[in-house]
């Protein structure tokens, strides 16, 4: 009997343990998989808070954040693949018309530009601020808003203009006497605005293809205001296109010269109308000698050769057939005369009828025209004219006297 009672008690205890275990499992499973009613009841209060509790939080955000800083640009950055300029994914394209507003995002910085007025043929009341014969002023009155997080100094140097003919132009330095306003040059803090004018001097027969705004030359984000018919001009071939990326001229290692013997160097004749090109990595530069003037004269009384010397001048057209912008300076040129002396270009070469000094930024596919002037002895004759765009590489272009 005792043995029977013991077995019965053990069986009852085991059955009780099994029941308790089942109850625990059922309760735990219910907490992991709530019913639809439980889901609705649990999320409804937190998903839709009262309007009175949200508004103060938004007010607090705008009070501690620079105006517009948290907003997305109204014009999404995009590059038009059919254009040979502004093809970076960070670039923005807008139409070059009065009243146009566009935004450029450069990292955490946001710039909002509005073309308030465009004046083709603008006039200055300052008698010393007049375009040269055959040229005109093209003026832009621009409103800039800083919707970013830091202050920025914005000036006309952040702008560049390209014409349909493919030439790149820098803004007029310190334009004065224009009724449309003063020159754009202002530090703009976060949430601030500035207004000013940017003026270009162009030939009367050239029309703008695009106006470029580049707030930071270190980054790739640029804003392009394209002429309304820019796409049609590109597709029709009316605009200047990047030339073939290949060097032109006799290679240096085949030239038989005591100079320019690198295989990347190129040699072409030193005659008016001659073109030559060199490749420096992905950059290709083509230069055409439009004119050569031995004994050039300047109308500037302060720009005259020393006694026994003369000005030797070349009028040059530069074409950037590479993939990135380049900045031209007079330091890229050198002249050697037949008696073995080397000469550097004149820095202050003004008053020459052939044009202004070749300098400034030239974008991919762009052109620029200017002069390079040397002061050499009256009886000296050139042996070669050298163009060296990068002193750290071996690619040099030589125009050799024949």
Question: Can you give a write-up of this model?
Answer:
By secondary structure, the protein is an alpha+beta fold. It contains four helices and 23 strands.
Short summary of the structure?
With 402 residues, the protein is an alpha+beta fold.
> What structural class do helix, strand and pairing data support?
alpha+beta
Shape call: globular
User: What gap, in angstroms, lies between the N and C termini?
Assistant: 134 Å
Tell me how many strands there are.
Answer: 23
Q: What does the average pLDDT come to?
A: 83
Q: Could you tell me the radius of gyration in angstroms?
A: 35 Å
Strand content: 35-45%
Q: What is the helix tally? A: 4
Contiguous runs where pLDDT drops below 50 for at least 5 residues: 1-10, 23-75
Major sheet: size, sense and barrel closure? Answer: 6 strands, mixed
Secondary structure topology:
Layout: H1 2-32, H2 36-47, H3 51-64, E1 92-95, E2 101-106, E3 109-120, E4 135-146, E5 152-155, E6 159-163, E7 168-169, E8 185-188, E9 193-203, E10 208-213, E11 223-226, H4 230-236, E12 250-251, E13 266-269, E14 275-280, E15 283-296, E16 309-320, E17 326-328, E18 333-337, E19 342-343, E20 360-362, E21 367-377, E22 382-387, E23 397-400
Parallel strand pairs: 1-11, 13-23
Antiparallel strand pairs: 2-3, 3-4, 4-9, 5-8, 6-7, 6-10, 10-11, 12-13, 14-15, 15-16, 16-21, 17-20, 18-19, 18-22, 22-23
